[in-house]
């Protein structure tokens, strides 16, 4: 009643505005969640088809050709090789075999000495895990040894001669998985990487844009929100790194994809500078928050420079996906540095000078990601930044590199 009376008296409905904002955020989060889930499905679609084909073939060969009446281990091994080790399937197959060997040896020995039962099962699993850890085995071998020991102890009383089929099925499953990925159904490695790179680059571009807008409006909350969202980028970077490793393996194993090796090398070399660009952008955004808190000046070219960085990231993503030389992305990075030079010349505070330095560093990372050598990228950055970094009256260095092509005017 009090609230309705206040509204009749002409006061602002603060609660209504807050509720509307929260509702809009929830609606946006729901759309984003659906989009993320669909993207994950598209990313995993090829792998799911590969795993289904490998499991079916492993079952068929083990059952029909080898006469195994219960071919359980072969499809499990095939799926485990495919799903758990993108980019390391040769290694996973070896780990699979080693883990099976340890599990069979430990299980058979303890069954022979102690018999079967609940406490024997617990002891077998414990010994298998401790033995593989003592030997310095990987987590995959430890898990495989323990799982095999469980199968040996629980199935041996009802299934005779289980050990040899387990070895054969492990070999068969791993081999079928490699055959599917290399020959029968090799994925397009560039398409895999493009899909994996999109979330990381979109995240970086969006938060740089949010930071630029926050500086123009002196909106600390918006910049802080961009910083928090950028900090949660580990999943995107891990997905990109895994996709690159998987694509390199596909290009190595599959004759149909050998012609993609040079392009994959370019992508692989871009992964580290993209990671550095993420980190340096995080420092840039964090200092932008401090800049607003300390009420330092924000020259107009400063947010423009950050906006150019965001556009450079988007252009890099587009030109990589199209298989083009990323010239537009390079030009936009240099435009960002040029605007940062203008901002520095107009006068900035302490945090503002750090923001300018991070714009330069991030632009250098993006140039390296585009295929430019680090030393050459640094020369381009110095040239694009202009005379602001040189003390007044100091002459230019002899033999200084000519200025590279400038970016087109921004509309």
What is the number of helical segments per DSSP (H or I, 4+ residues)?
Answer: 15
> How would you sum up the global shape?
elongated
Structural class: mainly alpha
Distance between the termini: 53 Å
What's the alpha carbon Rg, rounded to whole Å? 29 Å
Order of helices and strands: HHHHHHHHHHHHHHH
Note the beta-strand portion. under 5%
> Helical residue percent?
over 70%
Total E-strand runs:
0
Poorly predicted tracts of residues? 1-7, 388-411
- Overall mean pLDDT: 76
Largest sheet, if any? none
Outline the structure in words.
The chain contains 15 helices and no strands. The protein has helices at 2-8, 14-65, 73-83, 89-114, 118-134, 139-155, 163-184, 189-217, 220-231, 234-253, 261-293, 301-321, 327-346, 350-369, 374-385. Helix 4 (89-114) crosses helix 5 (118-134) and helix 12 (301-321) runs antiparallel to helix 13 (327-346). Mean pLDDT is 76; it is low at 1-7 and 388-411.
């Amino acid at each position: 009643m009090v609230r309705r009376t206040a509204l009749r008296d002409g006061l602002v409905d603060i609660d209504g505005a807050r509720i509307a904002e929260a509702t809009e955020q929830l609606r946006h989060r729901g759309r984003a969640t659906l989009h993320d889930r669909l993207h994950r499905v598209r990313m995993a679609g090829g792998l799911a088809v590969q795993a289904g084909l490998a499991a079916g073939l492993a079952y068929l060969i083990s059952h029909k050709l080898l006469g195994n009446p219960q071919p359980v281990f072969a499809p499990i091994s095939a799926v485990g090789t495919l799903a758990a080790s993108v980019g390391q399937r040769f290694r996973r197959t070896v780990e699979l075999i080693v883990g099976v060997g340890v599990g069979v040896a430990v299980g058979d020995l303890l069954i022979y000495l102690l018999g079967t039962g609940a406490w024997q099962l617990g002891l077998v699993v414990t010994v298998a895990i401790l033995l593989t850890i003592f030997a310095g085995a990987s987590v995959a071998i430890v898990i495989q040894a323990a799982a095999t020991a469980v199968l040996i102890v629980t199935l041996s009383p009802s299934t005779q001669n289980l050990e040899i089929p387990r070895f054969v099925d492990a070999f068969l499953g791993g081999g079928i998985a490699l055959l599917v990925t290399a020959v029968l159904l090799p994925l397009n490695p560039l398409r895999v990487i493009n899909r994996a790179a999109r979330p990381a680059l979109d995240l970086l571009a969006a938060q740089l844009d949010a930071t630029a807008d926050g500086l123009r409006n002196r909106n600390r909350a918006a910049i802080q929100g961009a910083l928090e969202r950028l900090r949660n980028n580990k999943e995107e970077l891990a997905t990109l790194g895994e996709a690159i490793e998987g694509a390199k393996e596909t290009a190595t194993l599959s004759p149909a994809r050998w012609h993609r090796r040079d392009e994959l090398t370019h992508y692989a070399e871009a992964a580290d500078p993209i990671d550095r660009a993420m980190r340096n952008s995080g420092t840039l955004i964090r200092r932008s928050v401090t800049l607003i808190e300390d009420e330092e000046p924000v020259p107009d070219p400063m947010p423009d420079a950050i906006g150019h960085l965001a556009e450079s990231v988007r252009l890099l993503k587009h030109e990589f996906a199209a298989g083009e030389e990323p010239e537009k992305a390079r030009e936009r990075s240099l435009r960002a540095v040029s605007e940062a030079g203008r901002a520095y010349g107009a006068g900035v505070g302490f945090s503002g000078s750090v923001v300018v330095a991070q714009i330069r560093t991030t632009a250098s990372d993006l140039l390296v990601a585009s295929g430019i050598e680090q030393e050459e990228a640094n020369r381009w950055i110095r040239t694009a930044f202009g005379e602001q970094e040189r003390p007044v009256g100091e002459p230019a260095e002899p033999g200084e590199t000519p200025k590279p092509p400038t970016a087109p005017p921004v509309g």
